[in-house]
Prior knowledge:
The structure is a single chain. By secondary structure, this protein is α/β, with parallel strands linked by helices. It has one domain: Luciferase-like domain (TIM Barrel, Alpha-Beta Barrel), CATH 3.20.20. The protein is built from eleven helices and eleven strands. An eight-stranded parallel β-barrel has the order 1-2-3-4-7-8-9-11, surrounded by six helices. The protein has a two-stranded antiparallel ribbon with strand order 5-6. Strand 3, helix 3 and strand 4 form a beta-alpha-beta unit. Helix 1 crosses helix 2 and helix 1 runs parallel beside helix 11. The radius of gyration is 19 Å and the shape is globular.
Amino acid sequence: MQLPLDxxxxxxxxxxxxxxxxxxxxxxxxxxxxxxxxxxxxxxVFTLPILDPLLQLAMLSCYAEDLQIGTAVYLLxxxxxxxxxxxxxxxxxxxxxxxxxxxxxxxxxASDYEAxxxxxxxxxxxxxxxxxxxxxxxxGEPTRSDHAFFPFPETQLIPPAKQPGGPPIWCGGRSDxxxxxxxxxxxxxxxxxxxxxxxxxxxxxxxAAAEAAGREVERFDxxxxxxxxxxxxxxxxxESANAHLSQRYAMDFSRATRRYAAIGSPADVAERLxxxxxxxxxxxxxxxVAEADERPEQLQRFAEEVRPLL
Length: 310
């Protein structure tokens, strides 16, 4: 089967705010530049300061009235599904139904799991068990669970999420097991550190899993969290991007920067985005690999110099 993809190509970006003023400036500038969405990431503990993703989105939604907001991604295995559903349904109400709920397992940073006393080896199984419960709760349906990870009596959230059926649930991941899970349970895929070729292969595996499960998919969202840096030439962009990513992840990132990032001149970056679009991508989420004071200029260059080439 072929996954039914949206024809429109959307562009959003990752952000990490630290104050009300940050939220206002980021949201207003995003709308001025014509972006479609703003996303936040999730860690309990990390190499850089980071606030709770849903609280960031709640603040951003006050100023980003014309934009979708979302998580890329929320570490659902660390949370009880009733607590997560209550917070997500509340946020979807407060933002008037503009929420995209991207979830994933993480795992690259075991400290997130250690801090929450959740065995990292259970992360996939916890996500698998939580997703159907989460979806039922977001719809406002009476829901109970006998699962060993999180048993709870019949529970109904009032009010449910604003969007009928709840906000779209995108799943992250790139392993065969994760892709198979998406085919059965997700409304979309938000990928990370995959090439355009791997992206196309991943979508084929998701489609096969959906067909094998007998699932009728009316729409499937295809997103990708993309390291990106625009400069006047490739090497200048590479040096800046690689320095930032190597610091962020506390490792030499040079090989991954060249393999997975969209960097270089506006034409270089547009060419890379075209490759992802040909592979099936419809919603790019830019991770502008730059220092905080450089990001406004980067977002402007992507909007004014790259997007017209797409």
